[in-house]
Structure prediction request, 347 residues.
Amino acid sequence: MASDEPKPKRIKLEEKKLSQNTLFGMGNPLLDICAVVDKDFLDKYGLKPNDQILAEEKHKEMFEEIVKKFKVEYHAGGATQNSVKVAQWMIQEPHKVATFFGCIGKDMFGKILKEKAEEAHVDAHYYEQSEEPTGTCAACITGDNRSLVANLAAANCYKKEKHLDLEENWKLVEKAHVYYIAGFFLTVSLESILKVAKHASENNKIFCLNLSAPFICEFFKEALMKVMPYVDILFGNETTEDIEEIAKKAQSLPKENKKRQRIVVFTQGKEGTVMTKGDKVETFPVLEIDQSEIVDTTGAGDAFVGGFLSQLVQDKTFEQCIHAGHYSANVIIRHAGCTFPEKPDFH
Prediction:
């Protein structure tokens, strides 16, 4: 028996050794521009202190003005990019386990976004074009409130044939084992999502999708239903009505890859996370946090998914994935924006 003893240890080491580009994300890259602003600035652009809106014509000047007038901080943002960034942070080594595709402009904000993605050790390969400027999200902070104004701009311009279909880019897709796309990207490039989703399904890899926001289910239902047969893990959050009912319905929708059962994971803020697997519905309590320690809850959902994915790529159990998701979200809500300390303290 003694000669066999080292074997389990060796297996354990193998399991931990992750290679680059194992996790693939594709979505709307936004450069987050965070600044503490005054009430006059909010009033000038008709903003509410605590809100999330898409930029209209009247907000166009705002992005340059905030940079000129206030002390700003830049972060690589957008839902999917936030999640892969958090997953990479949780994994730490090796760098570039996470790959990210999306569209940016050939401009100053695009240059900053590339630097920020590099600082986060994410292997970002952006499709760069000159028609539209890099997408931005201004986070206007007043006291405890944050008013978010997103200008998708270039993020809306992703083209499958100009980027995803290129041989060197598709090779990166093929290297991955786990794929994650937020529902927001359904409004940009359904054909890109389908190409990646079909690849995952045909090769028995894991494809994850997030319902992201109520308007996706309402106005992009047709696109969502085309992707659904390829979804192995579906994420959603508390803004979606009657979670258990939706989870069961999503569970029963047709599925291409019969080797994997579809899992549905819904977060509900502090109420705990619901997971359905087959007929089994389980609720996992979130980590306790004192109300006074909460700085900003905006990136919590993205962070949960990031934590979850960080363990999924390491073949951990779904329970462990949820535990890591709760940990990541708990860290993120103690910081402004989707930011975190240098290293996680996750066990």
